[in-house]
Amino acid sequence: MKKKLLFIVNPKAGRTAIRNELFEIIVVFSEAGYEVVVYPTTGPTDAERKICEDGADYDLIVCAGGDGTMENTVSGYMKMGEKKVPIGYIPVGTTNDFARSLKISRKPIEAAKQIVSGNSCNLDIGQINDKYFVYIAAFGIFTEISYRTKQSLKKVMGHSAYIIEAIRNLGNYKAYRLKAEFDGATITGDYIYGMITNSHSVAGFRVRGSVHVALDDGKFDCLFIKAPKNVAEVQQIVAAILANNMEDNEMFFYCKATKVHIESEEVIPWTIDGEFAGNMNVADITNHKQAVEICLENPSVVEGITEAFFDLYDDPEEDMDDNHEDDMGNGW
Description:
single chain, four-stranded parallel beta sheet, nine-stranded antiparallel beta sheet, 2 domains, 37% strand, Tumour Suppressor Smad4
């Protein structure tokens, strides 16, 4: 009996090339011994609904879309019941942070081949209040930069454009007064940015820890940036980011944590995996250790790296053209 594969495709995300390559991708799956059922999503939460209802009937679930599509797929996976099956990801968005962290090819056919020829491993999944996320929950300056940066600037400068845009507006972003608790550690004050992540890449640039960063250790990497009070502190933040060195810098707070509790005097607009998650006064964030089984060409990438915090880099495999769309805006 053939194995069954549920292939969820977001028709509005990313490169239009996925439509031209769809048949070849199905052939890759079929030649690997799968009977393929293709399901084009019809709305922003359709993948979650489909997987909740039918996911347990399949031997493998693959989604093609941007980071938001992957997040919606995982949300369905986490709610589908006791039976869990491996999942695979074909990234079709613009930024594809999740794919970057896991070394998944941004070429759809190659990504399909990696799924069927690779091995499975388990990844941590995050939860903020009642919403699941794959790699990041964040608020503040960098959460908006990826989508505000002009496409023409991204095309010329690649992912460095995100940092340039953030630095240019650093003094103009809103600060939030909050109290945050991280497995016992506590911070209070005004912050322009906060992220709780399980990724090596956010908004197209790498987020690295000065300590070991792993994607399956049950701990988030947490980074918060204080609101600058004067020009000198703005320069201090900019210099730290450009130098990839935030250690012993009073404008930054970094730690690892399994659970995070954040309270604020006013509502904070949060994003998860690049999607708006709602305005919250209270955010309870939990790491579900090794909750999702995923097929990767090289499972060892989840075990961790040791590098600096931010690294500006461009991906030669990714073509930043005007046809790209992320799961924001025209996609879902």
